[in-house]
Specification:
The protein is α+β, with helices and mostly antiparallel strands. It folds into two domains: 2-209 and 325-407, Aminopeptidase (3-Layer(aba) Sandwich), CATH 3.40.630; 211-323, Alpha-Beta Plaits (2-Layer Sandwich), CATH 3.30.70.360. It has twelve helices and 16 strands. It has helices at 2-18, 35-50, 95-107, 135-140, 146-149, 159-165, 195-199, 237-254, 290-310, 330-342, 358-361, 388-408, and strands at residues 54-57, 63-67, 76-82, 116-122, 182-190, 203-209, 211-220, 224-225, 259-261, 265-268, 274-275, 278-287, 314-323, 326-327, 349-352, 367-372. Strands 1, 2, 3, 4, 5, 6, 14, 15 and 16 form a nine-stranded mixed sheet that branches. Strands 7, 9, 10, 12 and 13 form a five-stranded antiparallel sheet that branches. Helix 10 (330-342) packs across helix 12 (388-408). The longest helix is centred in the last third of the chain and has 21 residues, at 290-310. The radius of gyration is 23 Å and the shape is globular. The model has no long low-confidence stretch (mean pLDDT 98). The structure holds glyoxylic acid (GLV) and manganese (II) ion (2 copies). One manganese (II) ion is lined by residues 82, 93-94, 125, 189, 356.
Length: 410
């Protein structure tokens, strides 16, 4: 345990170092294909090389570190997570899984296995820049289409142009696909919730990842003078959006297991003495059962129409994501559970409320996920943290997992 503990200390130090790579000073904010991502690639790439890995960056900006097997014809095991962040993020969401993958290769001390290991640092998972998540993992499974490449960020830059501006070639996106014989994908990630802590557990094995919907709502009213327009003659888009947001919260409270959030609101023209004429509001809806989530979204849209009609507003929406719930692979998850148990930790199966690259990669190969306890259940916030003992537990389990996969190749 001494070596994993020392390595865990180093893993945390590396995550903190990568958190310095940011586009917002004083915080960690790292969108897809932003300048600070180059520095992340440099630092992680150097650690990968020290661990004996070959390093490359694919056409959507995923950082890929290959650790060769005994035989070139061997299959490949992917270990990955994402390197982009939400605004004002913590140091561990995503990054930890990539740094941990490199640390596992380091702990092999140059020993070659019966399978290649590829550690992938996905370039985009959060959806911050283009409003749609999972661009990095979609490239790995060949899921990038023209519609996605044409999406624009807040500055009007298209995905395809952002790729070129980063010095990458969009014509090579097809090469980013996992080729050859893939054994599977494993992702180490902080839980981002309070369950493991409440149970006093270091680790959790993910059974399934909740589905999610993401939409952009647009309420339109009439901008007008805040001093001269009587209350009964107003068409205030922000007041309408506010009423709807409250109804969204009510609906989620009334539906077991449903979570619904408006996390971004933009009012135009945005002056204290002007009645807001246009409001853009994000909507994020999640549930472990798609049969509950999808009708709930439709109810929320009907409620937006009713509120808008009553207030003399119009409302429209763009659907950015309807990602189905995804079960992890039974066999690979069983291997992970054995690794947890054989490392001396209790096995706890759980669902993930957060989305993860594993839910995309699962379309192409067996996928499994291991959660590490999140102190205070805090994530998507700069106070997010992880315990050294839990990182050590994940490293011990990860090594066992590699041994179990190795044994399965006999
Ligand atoms: C990813 O962090 C998500 O939004 O679940
Ligand atoms: Mn996240
Ligand atoms: Mn994440």
């Amino acid at each position: 345990m001494e070596r994993p503990l020392a390595t865990a200390h180093g893993v945390i130090a590396r995550c903190k170092s990568l958190a310095e790579c940011t586009s917002e000073s004083g915080f960690t904010t790292r969108p897809f294909l932003s300048e600070p991502m180059r520095e992340v690639h440099l630092r992680l790439g150097a650690w990968m090389q020290q661990a004996g890995m070959s390093v490359s960056i694919d056409a959507v900006g995923n950082l890929r570190g290959g650790y060769a097997a005994q035989q070139p014809s061997a299959p490949r095991l992917f270990i990955g997570s994402h390197l982009d962040t939400v605004p004002r993020a913590g140091a561990y969401d995503g990054v930890l899984g990539v740094v941990l993958g490199v640390a596992l290769v380091e702990l092999l001390d140059g020993r070659r296995l019966k399978f290649h290991i590829e550690v992938v640092g996905f370039s985009e998972e959060e959806g911050l820049r283009f409003g749609v998540p999972f661009i990095g993992s979609r490239a790995l499974i060949g899921g990038i289409d023209g519609e996605l490449l044409g999406r624009r960020d807040a500055n009007g830059v298209r995905v395809v142009d952002a790729i070129r501006a980063f010095g990458l070639d969009p014509l090579r996106i097809g090469d980013a696909q996992a080729g050859g014989d893939s054994l599977g994908y494993v992702e180490f990630h902080i839980e981002q919730g309070p369950i493991l802590e409440s149970l006093g557990l270091h680790l959790g094995v993910v059974e399934a990842i909740a589905g999610q919907s993401r939409l952009e709502m647009i309420f339109k009213g009439q901008a007008n003078h805040a001093g001269t327009t009587p209350m009964h003659l107003r068409h205030d888009a922000l007041a309408g959006a506010a009423e709807w947001i409250t109804s969204v919260e009510k609906e989620a409270h009334a539906t077991a297991g449903l979570v619904a959030t408006t996390g971004r609101l933009h009012a135009e023209p945005g002056a204290s003495n002007v009645i807001p004429g246009i409001v853009h509001a994000s909507l994020d809806v999640r549930h472990a059962d798609d049969a509950v989530r999808r009708p709930a979204v439709e109810r929320l849209l009907r409620s937006a129409q009713e509120i808008a009609a009553r207030r003399g507003l119009s409302v429209s929406w763009e659907r950015h994501l309807d990602q189905a719930e995804v079960a992890m692979d039974t066999s690979l998850t069983g291997t992970l559970e054995r690794a947890v148990a054989n490392s001396g930790y209790p096995v706890h199966r759980m669902n993930s409320g957060a989305g993860h690259d594993a839910m995309i990669v699962a379309k192409r190969m067996p996928a499994a996920m291991l959660f590490l306890r999140s102190p205070g259940g805090i994530s998507h916030h700069f106070s997010e943290t992880v315990l050294e003992e839990d990182v050590a537990a994940a490293l011990v389990t990860g090594l066992r997992f590699l041994e179990e996969v190795e044994a399965g190749r006999d």
